[in-house]
Design a protein that fits this description.
alpha/beta; Aspartate Aminotransferase, domain 2; Aspartate Aminotransferase, domain 1; three-stranded antiparallel beta sheet; about 15% strand
């Protein structure tokens, strides 16, 4: 086995598996020439709402737009504070700042990588108006705890579900809901590497609130309720018809995609079970996991050595994320730290995401595991810390 075939995400292999359907779907858009707001956008929107069991889906241009539109639909104002996790991609923080609000950063759990719900309450001030939770790497946050706090303090909640599309949240009473459908508004991205992905940019919002859905729809369309009649300040954020056609095909295979990723994750779990310095992703009882990423923690200061060792062999890996938000140059002066952020800092020094996708072969995983074991042994011999 060599590393030549191993990819972080194998988009081409997945395309070849669905080539006939995807090519036909794209050709139908080209034949119709309805490149903007074509029937395929309506079809995908309907099917996604059905999949999520939510009444309203509003497609848009990308996941970052979805977050911005959600904040605008909730009518949050400059000066308002929004609570977010410190260990995350910056998109959610970015839109909060762009709209003149203050991001308040809360620490995360070193085991789940998601916001530590026990740390949220102490970060709430009289300026706090919303919480954005990020369902990181494929598994949901503890939403019952978040929603209880939101109710007590009269806060809105937005779910950033870009990495956990298809995950099920399990309530303590046995009920289930899809990730992203629990809060006031859920948002997602269809970026090519995501669990449900197109071949460019795309995004969506979803909600059970008809008024929020209508406002979101208008905001995404220049604030128009009818053409050339602008009721709200909005933006231009559309899901391309070609991308919607691709997504409509791929949505039918979501269960298969999740099963393939879960199978790969279970192999990694088993193979790494006796690695003392490597911690596999924790599973929580209140959520299923769709494994957008398979992210391990490598302790004893050996993470960077292991990544360099793998890179020399041609094995890809990624660090999501090398810096917590509060350490990013652009955000040092515009965020407020809502308490101690020790775990977020620690994770940035320990996390390593391994190849994970629907086409990953067991033989490839065996090779990856073997070389990680070699790397850890070599790190010990070289006294890496």
């Amino acid at each position: 086995m060599s590393a030549e075939r191993i990819q972080m995400v194998d988009l081409h292999g997945q395309y070849l598996r669905l080539k006939g359907e995807i090519d036909a779907a794209m050709q139908s858009v080209i034949d119709s020439c309805a490149f903007i707001n074509g029937n395929q956008v309506k079809s995908f929107t309907f099917h996604l709402a059905d999949y999520l069991n939510v009444p309203f889906v509003v497609p848009c241009g990308n996941g970052t737009d979805a977050l911005q539109i959600a904040l605008m639909a909730l009518e949050l104002k400059p000066g308002d504070e929004v609570i977010l996790p410190a260990f995350t991609y910056v998109a959610a923080v970015e839109v909060v700042v762009m709209l003149g609000m203050t991001p308040v950063l809360v620490d995360v759990s070193s085991e789940t990588f998601n916001i530590n719900t026990s740390k949220i309450e102490s970060a709430i001030s009289d300026k706090t108006k919303a919480i954005i939770v990020v369902h990181l790497f494929g598994q949901t946050c503890d939403m019952e705890s978040v929603m209880a706090l939101a109710k007590e303090y009269h806060l809105y909640v937005i779910e950033d579900n870009a990495q956990s599309m298809g995950a099920d949240y399990k309530y303590s009473d046995g009920r289930k809901k899809k990730a992203g459908t629990i809060a006031d508004i859920g948002t997602t991205s269809f970026f090519p590497s995501k669990p449900l992905a197109c071949y460019g940019d795309g995004g969506a919002l979803y909600t059970s609130d008809e008024s929020l859905a209508e406002k979101s729809r208008m905001i995404a369309n220049h604030g128009q309720q009818t053409k050339y009649h602008h009721k709200l300040i909005g933006c231009n954020s559309r899901l391309d018809t070609l991308q919607a056609a691709i997504l409509d095909v791929k949505l039918k295979y979501m269960a298969d995609f999740i099963e393939a990723r879960t199978r790969a994750a279970e192999f990694y779990d088993w193979a790494f079970s006796d690695f003392e310095e490597l911690l596999v992703p924790m599973r929580v009882p209140y959520s299923t996991h769709v494994f957008h990423q398979y992210t391990v923690r490598i302790r004893s200061g050996k993470r960077d050595f292991v990544q360099r060792y793998l890179k020399e062999l041609g094995i890809p890996s990624m660090i999501y994320y090398p810096l917590p938000v509060q350490a990013q140059e652009a955000y040092k002066k515009v965020t407020r730290e809502g308490g101690d952020l020790t775990e977020s800092v620690r994770l940035c020094k320990e996390v390593l995401s391994l190849p994970m996708h629907t086409e990953l072969a067991e033989s490839e995983q065996q090779y990856i595991v073997e070389k990680i074991k070699e790397a850890l042994q070599a790190a010990s011999e070289h006294g890496e810390k």
